[in-house]
Amino acid sequence: MSDLSGNLAPAVPGFVRRARSADLEDMGRVHAQSMLASLQAGLGGALPLEVRQAVSATELSRGWTTAVASPPSPKHHVLVATQAEKVVGLAALAPSWQVDATGEALPDGDKAAEVTAMGVLPAHQRQGHGSRLLAACADHARADGAKVLVVWAVRGDESWSRTLTAAGLAPTGAHRLLPVGAGVTEECWAAAL
């Protein structure tokens, strides 16, 4: 797979590039499908109808418009994974709260970067796209001066857990509860850069 140094062994040809406005519709579709799959894995069963209805590809694509067209800072990045020129994955990276790879506070002046969104179309998972996106996020975070990469992942989504582990991230012990169905827990993963 990959590690945070960017060493990759991709399963299929694919690339990661900066997102463009022309990608917005595809990004909404990728985000919606990957989010629903992850939440379903976290619940261990079918999602409530109101959750499935609330996760709209159209609304999610609108939500990406500003982040893609005019990011709030040069340290905010929106990336897409492509296969045969088709967008099959996405990731967003932003400056983050100051914690190390174990969840402890970083010394003053040290920086962290958070992967604020990550998804790969379910039909394109396990083909190296997630690994490529994580490696690209790590490269951007390093270039921006970050010492730590942080990712929140749904507990129970074993596909993402395997990808994060293979990339060298580990759970910090921090978690948060999402109000989905009976509740979905997200765990904080991190790695030193």
Automatic annotation (TrEMBL):
User: Per UniProt, what is one GO molecular function of this protein?
Assistant: N-acetyltransferase activity
Q: What Pfam families has UniProt attached to this entry?
A: Acetyltransf_1 (PF00583)
Residue ranges occupied by any N-acetyltransferase domain in the UniProt entry: 14-191
Where does the secretion signal sit in this chain?
none
Report if keyword Transferase is assigned: yes
Task: Report if keyword Phosphoprotein is assigned.
Answer: no
Which UniProt keyword terms apply here? Transferase
Superkingdom of the organism of origin: Bacteria
Protein's name according to its UniProt entry: GNAT family N-acetyltransferase
Q: Which organism is the protein's source?
A: Actinomyces weissii
